[in-house]
Write a structure and sequence with these properties.
Glutaredoxin, globular, FAD/NAD(P)-binding domain, eight-stranded mixed sheet, about 550 residues
Length: about 550
């Protein structure tokens, strides 16, 4: 069988005996995270950078096999940038903004996900998940060296939990035997099968899609004429599947997804000669080495709530979507982005525990948005009836010549940041003629400013951003201090900042949350209004 390049593996947190294993009684910790994948480790990084002690437990010692997730969206990279590991990901990844859609042998149309200038990060990079995880762990090691209280424990399998009123006790198995620890807060980031979810008797609600997709990662021997773009075929003429998706990855590796149907013999399909048969039909007379392959089916499901007392769930442990649209890891990183600052505030005593309920409120909202888009994409890609198949092909036929039909083509609506419209932490949206894209609840759009880019200057705390408006240098409400970031449109030569944050207004004041979502906005500074908005954004009450 072919060599799996990714099993070389980043053995990132090899087993080491901890002091907890020799303690006379279970040691109590502020936060324990089950799952050492990208979501679990990123959550630990977020909390550790706040100075909150956190332990990650994983039954392995590093990254699993295969490229798995490869498409990382702009918002995900912006979150990683705030943690200090976005730039290495960008340097290694394959940048792309353009996608093309084909039906049989003909191109239907193409799209550009980020046609405008003035952003630090592109719409997407392609980067194999093992690299993405490694860059996060590398940043953890840097943070540990600087004193961040983060501990990664490999070969520490959680076999059971016991819930008490104010803590959770975990039963852990290691190569040296079993031990127990206690946690004030427990985060389940242990993947789609989530042992923690099973231990608590919790389940998903949603839909399983009866289709199968074969993934093949290959390395070309020679030049390949495909550019660095996302190419998607409906009913490809090469006959290798009902649909085909092509992406370029780092290391001159290409990822190809074949839709192969539900009633297939997986064992037969996974034989190298049968995978090569599909690849040869697609690529023609091209030599290649096979790197990795897998077959997957998918489901669009989520837990009813993501908080259960002192336990929170994040990433695939909380919700699952189809891979079309790159919403899995990207939505998981938005979970991290949302949970980290809230749990930090609660642990420090800066906000009530009720703030954690808004983690579930906001990220359930995000999961429902992702599930809706994923379900629509999957139904378009895999029509379930003769009528829906006829409709799909009629749309594809029209889209090549008529622009009105192109928005109806759905080869996977690609991941964008969730806007928390109408939810409980939102303050007033009182900016006259303010741009829709920076409305209350939205993730801040990036823009060039005098010293680089706006998002790089926002950091990870509450801030008051003023654009051609006066305000004090900071406002303190309760335990929260929001510092001012003053910006002038005189330092906006491209006009991008004004377009994205002023719209028809001449000045603006924004209250920005630690996760860089807009909490409130006004035409000018009003101390009473700002204080009230801070209280709302922290669930502090009136």
């Amino acid at each position: 069988m072919f060599q799996d390049r990714y099993s070389l593996a980043f053995k990132l947190y090899p087993y080491e005996r901890s002091a907890d294993q020799d303690a006379a009684s279970p040691v109590r910790h502020p936060v324990v995270i089950m799952g050492g994948g990208p979501i679990g480790v990123a959550t630990a990084l977020d909390l550790g950078l706040q100075g909150i002690p956190v332990i990650v437990l994983d039954d392995h010692e590093g990254i699993g096999m295969g490229s798995r997730a490869i498409c990382f969206a702009k918002r995900c990279l912006e979150v990683a940038d705030r943690y200090g590991c976005g730039e290495p990901m960008l340097d290694k990844g394959v940048v792309w903004n353009v996608g093309k859609v084909f039906h049989k042998e003909g191109q239907v149309y193409e799209f550009n996900l980020l046609p405008e200038e003035g952003h630090k990060y592109p719409a997407f990079i392609n980067l194999q998940q093992p690299y993405f995880e490694k860059f996060i762990v590398d940043r953890v090691r840097e943070a540990q060296a600087a004193g961040a209280p983060i501990e990664l424990r490999g070969k520490n399998r959680v076999d059971g939990i016991t819930e008490f009123d104010d803590y959770i006790e975990l039963d852990i198995t290691t190569p040296d035997g079993s031990y127990k620890i206690q946690a004030d807060w427990l985060i389940g980031a242990d993947g789609a099968s989530s042992p923690l979810r099973g231990m608590m008797g919790l389940d998903f609600e949603g839909r399983v899609f009866q289709d199968s997709f074969l993934i093949a990662d290959i390395k070309m021997k020679g030049d390949l004429e495909f550019p660095t773009e996302r190419w998607f075929w409906f009913e490809p003429s090469h006959g290798s599947g009902a649909s085909t998706l092509l992406h370029k990855q780092p290391d001159d590796t290409w990822r190809i997804d074949f839709q192969i149907g539900w009633d297939v013999d997986r064992k037969e399909e996974m034989k190298e000669e049968n995978i090569r048969r599909r690849l040869d039909a697609f690529l023609g007379d091209v030599e290649y080495d096979m790197v990795w392959s897998s077959i997957y089916t998918f489901q669009c499901k989520r837990m009813d709530q993501f908080r259960h007392g002192r336990v929170m769930f994040a990433g695939d442990a909380a919700h699952q979507v189809s891979p079309f649209g790159a919403r899995g890891a990207n939505s998981g990183m938005q979970d991290v982005d949302n949970l980290g600052w809230k749990l930090g505030m609660v642990i420090r005593g800066d906000a009530p525990e009720a703030l954690l309920d808004t983690y579930s409120e906001e990220r359930v909202h995000g999961a429902d948005e992702n599930i809706l888009n994923s379900t629509r994409a999957t139904d378009f890609i895999t029509p379930k009836s003769k009528v829906s198949h006829m409709f799909r092909n009629a749309v594809l036929s029209l889209a090549g010549d008529y622009e009105f039909a192109r928005p109806l083509v759905n080869s996977g609506r690609l991941s964008v940041p969730c806007t928390y419209d109408g939810l409980s932490l939102n303050g007033p949206d009182a900016l006259t003629d303010g741009p829709v894209r920076s409305r209350v609840g939205s993730a801040c759009p990036d823009a060039p400013v005098a010293d680089g880019f706006l998002l790089s200057q926002l950091g990870g705390a509450f801030q008051i951003v003023t654009i051609d408006a006066e305000a004090p240098e900071s406002v303190t409400e309760g335990q929260v201090t929001a510092k001012r970031l003053a910006i002038s449109t005189k330092d906006d030569p491209t006009g991008a900042l004004a377009a994205r944050y002023l719209g028809g207004a001449t000045s603006a004041v924004y209250l920005i949350r630690p996760d860089q979502h807009v909490a409130a906005r006004w035409d000018s500074f009003d101390e009473t209004a700002v204080r009230a908005a801070i209280r709302t954004a922290c669930a502090l009450g009136a």
